[in-house]
Amino acid sequence: MKIVIGSDHIGYSYKYSIINNLLNNGHEIADVGTHHTDFVDYVEIAKKAITVLVEKNFERVILINETGIGMANAANKLNGAYAAVCNDFESTRNSVIK
User: Fold this and answer.
1) Count of domains for the chain
2) pLDDT per residue over 17-38, tens digit each?
3) Which of 14, 90, 17, 76 has its CA nearest to residue 47?
4) Apex CA 85: angle with CA 83 and CA 87, to 5°?
């Protein structure tokens, strides 16, 4: 599966553990940032991620920030995105459009 992943500065280190897991399971990853722990606007990361999703035909996006609410709201304002806050396996599975 082709997956775009992005995080703000708070989710930076967690993002890399997810990337490693996804790569070990054979997924193609596009990391849109951030690549440091300095403050970054999560709205800009969401925009980058949705742009890659739409323009490069990726299948899913994972966005990480402190609560998930900000990233989901930012993504849902963009064409091509249907974002949900997912905190566990069940909420993640149930949020996927089939």
Assistant:
1) 1
2) 999 999 999 999 999 999 999 9
3) 76
4) 140
In a domain, 21, yes or no: yes
Inter-residue contact 60 to 28 (CB < 8 Å): no
Handedness of CA 57, 29, 84, 47 (dihedral sign): negative
Query: Over pLDDT 70: what percentage of the chain?
Result: 100
What is the spatial distance between Cα 29 and Cα 79, in angstroms, rounded to a whole number? 21
In a domain? residue 89: no
CA distance 25 to 22: 5
SS3 90: helix
Structure tokens at 76: 């849902």
Task: With a cut of 80, say whether residue 98 has pLDDT above it.
Answer: no
Flag whether the pTM goes above 0.85.
yes
Residue 22's domain spans which residues?
2-80
Asked if the structure places residue 95 within a domain, the reply is no
